Amino acid sequence: MKRILCRVASGFAAVLLLYVLINLASCSNDDKVRTDTPDEIELAISQMSLRQKVGQMFAGRPEMLDTTIHWNVSAELVAISLQEVNGTMRKVNADYPLGGVILYAHNISDSIQLRSFISQLRQLNGNPLLCIDEEGGRVARIANNQSFNLPKFESMDSIGRTGDPRNAYKCGNTIGSYLKRYGFDIDFAPVADVNTNPENVVIGKRAFSDNPEVAAGMVTNYLQGLDDAGIVGCIKHFPGHGDTQNDTHTGYAASNKTWTEMLGCEMVTFKAGIRWGAELIMTAHIAAPNVTGSDVPSTLSSVILQDKLRGELGYRNIIVADAMEMGAITQHYSNAEAAVLAVQAGVDIILGPKNLMEAFDAVIAAVESGKISEKRINESVRRILKLKQKIGRL
Q1: Partners of 352 in the beta sheet?
Q2: Are 147 and 182 in contact (CB under 8 A)?
Q3: Cis bond leading into 212, ω under 30°?
Q4: 8 Å CB contact between 143 and 108
Q5: At 34, is the secondary structure helix, strand, or coil?
């Protein structure tokens, strides 16, 4: 709370500052649960500039802030191995605040470096949430690093095949415990996809099962394990990447299922996650032509995100885009176009645009021109600050 007040409330009256300080003094030291009232979120929003609000809606690689780094494919970033905040990043960040930062394997060398990097990232403008993809199995940025002596899990598929959801809880809790120890806030896990297509090249054993009922129980127990460790989970990839053949990292991918078919399979796990109370749902860049009537990626589809996810399924928390640098987006849309379309479709957090400044400036321009209302921006910022408040990062 202090950090938000410092950055957005320079004009507060002394009496209000006193009120806040008294409230902070009365809070427990537990950074997982806060007793702040919703009015404090509204107060914070009312004192934020448009750039500060839009900044809350952007998250991505630390490399986004370093304009000296130029890359075409993410593999090129491995050789660069950005592992500390530098002057260029701080300068860019002064004008481009970030709501979140995600670290990848090449950003991490060992525990000492990781703790130092996280400490530096905590100081960035925008008070970013610190995120990572640490699913277990082949997607584990920390556990698969030989410098860390951490438990490893074969795959989520192997856990699902045990038939015991307690094993999913143990996995989530184990991963959550070491993520919390290193200072992360969010784990973009678990995968809630149902692996129904044996030719799927991107999900496969990252999913718990080809049976939606089995997967649903595993997903909610994994979420509970993370939560009990003090880490926020994120179910992905909505509306389901398990029945596709192509990889959205490299280009177009689609599910040809109807919505009725999805309700009987993919939505079983997502509904379970929503009932559990999932704080974040990550979109898939897959097209769903038999649901939307078009080849538009789900990330950019109001039918998928507004009509189905929010309307029919009743989801009220944060929608985060899968990385916008992926081929399914960049091969068809510019950074600017994709960012504006994502916000219009209902995305709250635009994750990993290839060019932060282009995407950020496009959203600002869209609000200033009336293409996107500031009310719409406030809706997303409200959800994001609500999560930050809940975990003690406001």
Answers
A1: none
A2: no
A3: no
A4: no
A5: coil
